[in-house]
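In the previous chapter we treated chains in isolation. Here, by contrast, the input contains two separate entities that must be folded as one system, with a combined length of 973 residues.
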Amino acid sequence: MYIHIPFCRSKCAYCDFLSFPAGQDECREYVGALISELSFYRGESIRTLYIGGGTPTFLEETQLIRLFEAIRKTFDVSKMEECTVESNPESLSARKVEILMQGGVNRVSLGVQSFSDRINTEMKRPTRKRHTLYSISLLREAGIGNMGLDLILGVGKEDQYRKDLDAVLKIMPAHVSVYMLHIGAGTMLERMVESGRFTPLDERTFERLYGDTVDALSEAGYIPYEISNFALPGFECRHNQNYWEGGEYIGAGLGAVTTIGAERKRNACSMRDYLRYIRTGTPPVVWRERLGETERRIEKLMLGLRMSKGIPIGELNELAERSSLGLVRSCIEALVRLGYAKRRTDRLSLTISGIMRSDEIVIELLRAVEGEGEPVF
Amino acid sequence: MHRKIRNFCIIAHIDHGKSTLADRFLEITGVLSPESGAQQFLDSMDIERERGITIKSHPVTLQYECGGESYTLNLLDTPGHVDFNYEVSRSLAACEGALLLVDASQGIEAQTLSNYYMAMEHDLTVIPVVNKIDLPQADVEGAISQIIDDLGFKREEIVLASAKTGAGVRDVLDRVVEKVPPPAENDDAPLRCLVFDSQFDTYRGVIVFVRVFEGKLTPEERIRLMSSGMGYKVEETGIFRPRMTKNEKLVSGQVGYIIAGIKEIRQTRVGDTVTHAAGGAKEPLPGYREVKPMVFSSIYPSFADDYEALTGAMEKLRLNDSSLVYEPDSSQALGFGYRCGFLGLLHLEVVQERLEREFGLSLVVTAPSTKIRVAYKNGTSEIVNNPMLFPDLGALEYSEEPYVRVTIVTPEEYIGNVMKLAISRYGTQVAMNYIGEQRIEVEYEMPLAEVIYDFHDRLKSVSRGYASLDYEYADYRRGELVRLDILVGGKKVDALSQIVRKERSYERAREIVRTLKSEIPKHLFKIAVQASIGGQIIARETIGAVGKNVTAKCYGGDITRKRKLIERQKEGKKRMKRVGNVDIPQAAFMAVLKRE
């Protein structure tokens, strides 16, 4: 289950998620509505819970307590394996960490992004280095061993990123996520790029730094199990793995997505609409789609290739028509030849340079699977 | 007793107001009310209205009162662009008279002259009309004196009118009744009808538009088309008022239509003669000439699945456009398509637009070329209209390309620019005359290939829109021509081959590889784009590999969005043409076709 808390202290320049600053009154109203929505799924047995945002820990203490109580009362949590809360360092306090612990949270994902105050200022982040270090010590003291730190590759120059990576390696959290900076449409960052106030790293530097990141983290004992995710053995995020393996999930809260069987649906993204649906006792769903064979095929490929274990070649062949098996084979061979993919036992996975171009590669594989075009490269 | 019939047409330079004048005629005779919406009734195709040109002839019958008598006026509209001269000639052949329309603000233009000469060749009675006299910039006196001095009319023969305001329009019709001779009547002679157009109707088959010169024709009779010898039984005859209206018979002098269960559109040839199957005429009507395409280009569907749809669309187009000729063609790069012959570049564009708009097809059209006469070293020779078939230098003795005689009329202040342009296109000046005091008619001989690209556009731009152009085929002359091949990713893209003048080949080669570099998207690997002549590479660009295309974050809520992104990118690639292992977008083919 995923629960979305869309509130933040302020909006970061690069952020294109469904999140925004809000007052505590609005937060309280939202938590009330959210709890009502949860009751639509009363009695479900939950294996992993992920409370994301926004900044869930931006909620005041009483609201956090209220939310965790509702979760405990509404669902069967006896089989809970993993319960994650996302947090931004400036929003944590000793008391909040205590509340999380009492609420059954056993994993915290901390949005560090960079240790540089200059970069955080430039990216309009409220976080400072002292907040980050303090939060990490709070979590450690509280005994939350399963801590994840997030970095963004590309917010600063090369040397700053290397410092950030070194800092993370000194802390040695159980989990590290490294996201490549994306300049989203409509973000403040996009305007900064347009007006020349921000210069993105060039593609080659991106590729080099990403490769070095994989090397450095691997050497330190982390397993690079997904494009952006690295974990010490046994600390892979199970909740997220379920997404990449095409599993079912329930999403609650503003704009949250649910996939059950062949149906995918999304909640209203407008707070007003969301609250109105809940008030009238209707599920706040505004969009649905049925996942047909084609959709599943695309998702299987694009999600499967995100993971370092890749996808079984046999499965790829099963997706393809008999007549396009030759195309699939020659496409795989070409990807291996160009250094974008590797074949290990009977699985196909991407190399560093393959990962950098993974969207392009997924498209080529799909075209081969669908038997499109003449002999592929 | 004479039938009170007048058969006439309107000839004019493009944009001199022909279609608007025809609309006024329809209003005056009560066929069309002034409020009835769409302007330019006769230009029934969207393209015609948008481009302000008439491509097809649409006959219309008007009942007009004059001097207490009722006359039947058959108006045959004619195309106004240089590419469609043959269509003009067919209409002229069906008439006894012509209105020669001259825009008062423009004066006589290149096509005014050529149309006038053509009307004279057909022995038509020509009535000069100065149109657009309401315009503030109209120079009515100037136009009148040009008509008097250059065309040899008398002042009193000229009618002044404004098709826009309606001024003088009745005078024009009165003059038609008065001056245009009634058609000769000879109902008892063997039947001879001139086919000047035809249309295809899904339910009724081919509808043949005819002018009856001799004899009479009634439904149920059997007819024969004299060029093909094919016989049919007439189901219906009728006239245009302006919609098709059934009648009991067609008689000599009339303009009308025949429906005779003709299913194959190829069987009606414009310019052909219709006669009775039994006891018919011995000789066909004169004036029929084979349509000679001047410009050739291949048309391929963007998606191979659309080949059948393209075939059907081409057949339908050819019914209404007898100037269009084509034969099957195939390219390794683009699959199956058609090699088509056109009257000129505008004709090509019109056909392309109609295929895309009326039939919803997405097309790739190759660079236009002319018909080249090729002499081989072994003494044989042939005509080549497809660059793919142009021989390598080793086998070639020499080649000849078609030249045209180009007539340009320009205000004298632009003559310098016009001459510079013509010389840059290998033009040789052969004549130069003043028309009136400020305008010059200048004639050049130049390779047709130089005219068909963008000569008209360039001429307009160097003369601020004032110079006008007409051309006619002259002869074949030797040229230093070579075939320029394009290779993408090491594979020759046959559809991009072009025949170019040797001295221009390097420049053109560099231009093409640069264009392709900017139009072909990056792939997972580097791509070489090369141009070669006879196997020797003369220009090269490299398209680098995709640098970065990765979605950093992908969790529950992102999956659909990410999938759609991939679907969209994949659809985009699907629309491209795959040559070897490179996807080439349609836009790349189009961009190479255009010249800077």
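Residues 2-244 of chain A form a domain with the TIM Barrel fold (CATH 3.20.20.70). The longest strand of chain A covers residues 107-113. Compare these points with the single-chain example from earlier in the chapter.
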